[in-house]
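Work Package 3 committed the consortium to producing structural models of liganded targets before the mid-term review. Because experimental data for this complex are still outstanding, the team generated a predictive model from sequence and the ligand definition alone, so that downstream docking and mutagenesis planning could proceed in parallel. The input record is reproduced below exactly as it was submitted to the modelling pipeline, together with the SMILES string for NAI.
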Amino acid sequence: MDSVSLSEVTVIKGTTHLGFMHSFRQPFCGVKISPKFYLSKVDGPKAISSSSNTKSQFVYGGGSIAATSDSGYKMNGVNLKSRTLMSSAVKERSLLDAYDDEYGGVIVDHGKLPSNPYAFASMLRASLSDWRRKGKKGVWLKLPVEQSELVPIAIKEGFEYHHAEKGYVMLTYWIPEEEPSMLPANASHQVGVGGFVLNQHKEVLVVQEKYCAPSITGLWKLPTGFINESEEIFSGAVREVKEETGVDTEFSEVIAFRHAHNVAFEKSDLFFICMLRPLSDKIIIDALEIKAAKVNVTRVFIRMLQLYMLQDGPDYNDCCVFQWMPLAEFVEQPMIRGDKMFKRVIEICEARLSHRYCGLSPHRLVSTFDGKPSSLYYNVVDDDHDPSHSNCSTEFYR
Ligand SMILES: NC(=O)C1=CN([C@@H]2O[C@H](COP(=O)(O)OP(=O)(O)OC[C@H]3O[C@@H](n4cnc5c(N)ncnc54)[C@H](O)[C@@H]3O)[C@@H](O)[C@H]2O)C=CC1
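The resulting structure, written out as tokens with the ligand in place, is given here.
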């Protein structure tokens, strides 16, 4: 027998739909299945329905399943929609594993998803009915990349994309029809840091990026970058500066932050400008990211020598002039002079150096709200009414 319809399965097996649902828990083709079900196996690749209402199709083993626009699924051409897959016996045994969340919703256990798309399709539908009956609200369905064939099935059931990471896509479904969805949206911001590193000679650490927008080509700018997941602003700033220039620094304060919108992938951008104390004036340029950093001639020679020894041949364009730029020279660059943000940032940094301004320092604490260790950024201006305790009255350079 080349293929078999659902009704044939039922007739041949002489069993109820329960038997059929059991089969969903097994890989469909060319694999171990129960002896009973073996009679009704589908053992060859089947033509997928080419009817115009077919939206998506999946090939599973030698069989195939297609989501159709009339909210049904076709398995080797068999429409599964109208079948009474939801008999109470089936319902009992065909729900997805899920647990309640604290907002009246459910989170599907992605570690226990059926491997068979047929099974998933019917279990998802049965589960949605069950959750609706129980008055559940939001449904979170995480589908690992290894089971990406389940995504169109869930979408067909009305799930929406929430967010995706390398290893999975998160889908959501809001059940109450009478209420607007209360599910929180995906993360709305990216978080960047910029390091303002000033040495005791009033020179600022500047870089030229190898890859940048034409509008800022040739600009000597502060090292900037993005915070990694679970990374602190203070350590991210130190890391970025180190990665881009090789200079070790110590975090001092967040002196300002900028909030901008529609920056990347329509996300907003929080840019924290951090003052950092240099711990060394050595420069080891990340040839991939930085085109140049100002160094003197001896350093250029040493750097070229390093590149020559470490690589097949040095890329002289990636070599550099001057590591530190006098602050006055940095400010004089037309792009900086004409930029309200950087002009103001420099004024603030200068105010901080002369104790006329106070930035925010991180203080580690655990909030009882979520029990998570976190950093609260604030300045200590008047601790115990002793001005010497203020983080801003201390000298920037130790
Ligand atoms: N670059 C600047 O002069 C300024 C940056 N900022 C802020 O600094 C933070 C970081 O921004 P930037 O340093 O400009 O980030 P960026 O856009 O330069 O990205 C950082 C690094 O990611 C990599 N990258 C980014 N997109 C890539 C792609 N499509 N393909 C391959 N590699 C890619 C590159 O290595 C790049 O150097 C943001 O919060 C931004 O608002 C603020 C003002 C000026």
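Reviewers should note the following from the model. The pocket of NAI is lined by residues 192, 194, 209, 216, 221, 224-226, 269, 271, 289 (CB under 6 Å). These observations will guide the Year 2 experiments.
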